[in-house]
Amino acid sequence: MTALQEDTEVATVAAIQLDDVVKEYLSHGEVVQAVKGVSLSIEEGEFFSLLGPSGCGKTTTMRMIAGFEEPSRGIVKLYGNNVTNVPPNKRDVNMVFQSYALFPHMSVWENVAFGLKQKKTSPAEVKRRVGEMLEIVALTGREKRRPREMSGGQQQRVAVARALVNNPRALLLDEPLGALDLKLRQAMQIELKRIQREVGITFVYVTHDQSEALTMSDRIAVMNDGLVEQLASPRDIYEAPATPFVAGFIGTSNLLGGTLSGGALEISGGKVLVPGHVDGEVTVTVRPEKISISTDEPAAGMSSVRGNVTEVVYLGTYNTYAVRLADGTEMSVFEQNARDASVTAERGDAVWLSWQPQHSYAIGR
Question: How far apart are CA 343 and CA 321, in angstroms?
Answer without folding.
Answer: 9
